[in-house]
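Morning, I've got a small favour to ask if you have a moment. I owe you a coffee for this, so here goes:

…
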Amino acid sequence: MQFLQTISLVLARAVCALALPAAPQVTEAEAVTLENFVISNIYTNTFSDPTNTQFNRTISFLFTDPNSNSTSTICTKSWTQTNSTNTYPTTYSLCDATGNDEAFQWKFDSLT
């Protein structure tokens, strides 16, 4: 009896193994190599009030993704800063639309 149960389990596993899809085989020629993003044309502006206690800051740069047919977009963000506060973007900011349904976002981890 145990012999029949063992054979049943082995056959059940064999049938299940045949039913599962095989992992796709990828050759080296098919492998994708990702390239680094490119950030260029970085511009910053700072305007202050007459007493130099509040500053309006802007950063703008060109973001290029070579992995996406070299899609480029301009990213811009403005914020204010005083002697005691700095509201630089610590959450993700959406870059300009690219025209090919791709969206790029960025944020500061820190600002010194």
Summary: The chain has one helix and five strands. The CA atoms of residues 58 and 78 lie 4 Å apart. The mean pLDDT is 77.
